Amino acid sequence: MNSALPHKCDVLVVGAGFAGLAAVAKILADDPNADVTVIERASDVGGTWRDNTYPGCACDVPTSLYSFSFAPSPKWSHTFARQPELFDYLRSVVDRLNLRDRIVTDCELLSADWSETDRRWTVETSRGATSVRVLVAATGALSTPKIPDVPGIDTFGGTVFHSATWNHEHDLTGERVAVIGTGASAVQFVPEIVDKAQRLTVFQRTPAWVIPRLDRTIGRVERTLYEKVPAAHRAVRGVIYGYREAYVTVLADNPWMLPAVKVFAKANLKRQVKNPVKRAALTPDYAPGCKRLLLSNDWLPTLDRSDVDLVTSGLTSVTENGVVDASGRNHEVDTIIFATGFTPTEPPVSHLLRGNDGRTLAEHWGGSPQAHLGTTVAGFPNLFLMYGPNTNLGHSSIVYMLESQANYVVSALNEMKDRRIAAVEVNESAQRQHNSWVDSELDGTVWNAGGCSSWYLDANGRNSTMWPTYTFRFRNKTREFDVSNYRIVSDTLESDNEVVSA
C-alpha cells in the first residue's frame, strides 16, 4: 500500500471497502492515468468484510451476485460466502487491478471543507492535509457500530464488546453470555457460540421473520466450469439477479402476496421451535419484509434449546454482575455481546463534510438524509456519495447499486473534463423532485406500510434508506450524468464565467 498522502490530487476516494473499490476501479478502467487516490482508516482494504470477524459471519446474498461484475471469481466455496472468503476476494481484486499504489492505509478522514474561492475540497486526515477537486465518500452505511447507552454499563465487572468488533482473545467457554439484539449478525453468531457457553440469555426487542438460507457447497467440478467457461458463471449471475429482482414484485409492487410468505415463515417457525412460549414470542406481528428478512437454518432451533433464555421485556440497565430486564429481573452473566447494528441513517462521515455555506452534511440533513440519486447533495459541490440515502436494498445485491453509482461518477468526471467544468452542484429542485418520487414510490411498500418500526426509518420517520423499486431502474437513472440538473461552474476562477443550469 502507498504510505504517502499526496498534497494535491484530482479525485480522492474515502474508504476501501466494496464502495470505494468500485469507484476507483471504474475511474481507472475509464482512464488509467486518472489522478485518483484512496484513503482508508484501517491498515488494509475490505471495509465491513475486514472488520466483522464474528463467528459465522457470512453474506446473505448469493455471492455470484454479491461480487463485482468486472472481477468475477470462480473460487467461491459456498453459494453464500463466508467472511474470510469475501475479505480475501476484495484483497485479490486490489491485486488483480493493480490498485495498491493508489491506496493510503492508516489514513483517517478528519474533516473536509469546500472552498467556493478555490473550488476544491480541503481535506484533513490523520496523515496530513490534501487539496482535492472531487471527493467521493465511500465510507459505507454499516461501518460504525451502534452501542446503546445503557445505565450501569461502566460498572459491569465482566467483558463487553460489539459483534462488529469481536473480542477473539476472550474465551466464552463455560461462560454465561448475554446477547443484546436479534438482527442479522446475532442470527449468525449465536448458533456458533451456544455450545461453548454455559448459558445464553438473548434479549429480543422485536422478533424477525426467518426463512431458510438455501446455501450449498460449490463442488470442484462446478468451480472448474466457471473458471474454464466464464460465460457459464455470468449466466448463473444473470439467473440469480433475475430471481432476486422478482422479490420486488412481492415486497413493493404487490404486497397482497405477502401473506403467502407469512404462511411459509410461520410453518418454518413451527417446525423449528417446539416450545410454545418461545414460539409465540418469536412470532412477529408485522408483515414479512417490513424489517429485514433473516436467512438462517439454525437460529430458531438454537433459541429453542433449554440452555438458551429468550428475554422479550427489554434491557433496562446493567449491574456489576448482570443485565436487568424491564421486569426488574437481574440475569447474572459473565459477558455481554451487543448485536445492535449500525447507524445507517446518520453516517458519521456526515459530521465531517462542510459544504459551501460552512454547515456540515449532518446539519443540512437534520436527521433525515436526502440526496439526488443517492449520490449528490445540494450545497456540496463536487461531492459524490457511495451507498448514499435511499440506495439500500431489501432484495438484491448492494454491489450492483455501487457499480451503478461508480458509473455515474465516471460519467460526471468525463462531462467535467470535456466541458472544462470546475465544479458541479445538484440543484435543490432536482434533489427535491427525486426524493418526492422516491417517497411516493415507497408509499404502500412493505418497508413503509408493513406495520413495524425499522432501522430503515430515520429520526424524522422518513424512509431515507431503501431504494423503492427494481435495481435496473436505478442503473438506468445513473447510466449518464444528468448535467442539466446541476449548477455548473466553468474551469476558471472569474465569477462571471459561472454557468447555471436549470
TrEMBL record:
Coiled coil: none annotated. The keyword Flavoprotein applies. Its EC number is 1.14.13.-. InterPro entries: FAD-bind_Monooxygenase_sf, FAD/NAD-bd_sf, Flavin_mOase-like. SUPFAM superfamilies: FAD/NAD(P)-binding domain. Keywords: FAD, Flavoprotein, Oxidoreductase. GO terms for molecular function: oxidoreductase activity. PANTHER family: FAD_NAD(P)-BINDING DOMAIN-CONTAINING PROTEIN-RELATED, L-ORNITHINE N(5)-MONOOXYGENASE-RELATED. Belongs to the FAD-binding monooxygenase family. This is NAD(P)/FAD-dependent oxidoreductase. It comes from Rhodococcus navarretei. The lineage of its organism: Bacteria, Bacillati, Actinomycetota, Actinomycetes, Mycobacteriales.
